[in-house]
Amino acid sequence: MSSTPEIDVARSEDDVVAAVRAAMETGSAFEIVSGGGKRNYGRPVEADAILDIGGLTGILKYEPEELVVSARAATRLTEIEFALAARQQMLGFSPADWSALFGGNAGAATLAGTVATNACGARRVKAGAVRDHIIGCRFVNGSAEAIKAGGSVIKNVTGFDIPKLMSGAFGTLGVLTELTFRVVPKPARVASLALSCDAEDGLRALREAARLPVDPTGLSYLPETALAACAAARAANVNLDPGAALIRVEGPGEALDEKLVILKKTFDRFSAQILDDAATDALFREIGDGTIFAGREGDIWRLCVPPSEAHMAAVLTRAQLWYADWAGGLIWLRLDANEDTARHLRGITAKYGGHATLMRANVDARARLAVFEPEPPARAAITASVKAAFDPQRIFNRGRMVEEL
């Protein structure tokens, strides 16, 4: 792999096809870059060149009445969100912008990067992940073929759902050129109830809130150390000791007030604080974007476990700075990236179920360690066969998820 790889700039799908065809002829591989904000997420790519698709931008079609939007792959999330907000709509999975977490500027996230890493925020607990909202895409495969998959209308999918397969594939199966999503109406109002409690009580309260008839769209727990590191919490004067369980609810004014009454009555054993729309939006965006860790030294892991096991899993990690999202199903941790930590965290996931991912670390650590949870042999064989079907010469982002694949 060259220390100074060449950069091939693609401004159209035809340019992408030409770049892939050239790579096939020379036997080379390239790293796919749209905005570049997540290049340090995953293993170091084994590439001879960079394919920059940052020129593939712009909204192609937006049909508010049909709740569908299509755009070129490198369109920034901010552009999409601005256009949707003008019609009181949004992407339902609350896309996460991890740009600042990796040392960049917030707002740099693109559609392609969001899909490739399945980057979703706190609304996943209610609305699902990126893959649950993408309904169509265009991409170029490893045989230099431009392929359309899915559609531009919301319907039941039959057969092999390729758009979902592309979500979380880290660009290893093809070069995305266009993406189509279903969108949802923006809520009329948003608020959250912050409960003062320790981690065990807080995580239990989140699971209890998930079963209430209030339809929560955010269920997060921030220990005192995470609250102190959270700019949005400080701005909203959320000073709850020893931590805060955060329950977000949405709806028209009267309906939202009723939900808050139910929550306050259910959790009257805790001291509580109500946060308004602006404070709630800022707080849950910071939680989803991981910016509690932005600008702070240290390696970052993410641990996915059953919510019922979240408290014990968090205790066993021995992390000093951590917080939980998705009612405890996701735990963000600041821990050193080394063999001992990897072995320890994956011992926890083996015990409780789930997986551990090294989210942020230097290039040496990401080359040395298994960034993603190692797959059992049967699943690894399926992964290799899917890669071979889409990218037989291993042109795209080689090694980013699995060494040499």
Report what the structure shows.
The protein has helices at 13-26, 77-85, 111-117, 124-127, 162-166, 199-210, 224-229, 231-235, 253-266, 277-289, 310-317, 339-352, 363-368, 377-390, and strands spanning 6-9, 30-33, 49-52, 59-63, 68-72, 89-90, 134-140, 146-150, 175-182, 184-185, 189-196, 218-223, 243-251, 272-275, 300-304, 322-325, 330-334, 355-360. The radius of gyration is 21 Å and the shape is globular. It is α+β, with helices and mostly antiparallel strands. The protein starts with 5 loop residues before the first strand and ends in a 15-residue tail after the last helix. It has three domains: 1-186 and 371-393 and 398-402, 2-Layer Sandwich (Uridine Diphospho-n-acetylenolpyruvylglucosamine Reductase, domain 3), CATH 3.30.465; 189-289, Alpha-Beta Plaits (2-Layer Sandwich); 300-368, Alpha-Beta Plaits (2-Layer Sandwich). It is built from 14 helices and 18 strands. Helices cover 32% and strands 23% of the residues. It has a five-stranded antiparallel sheet.
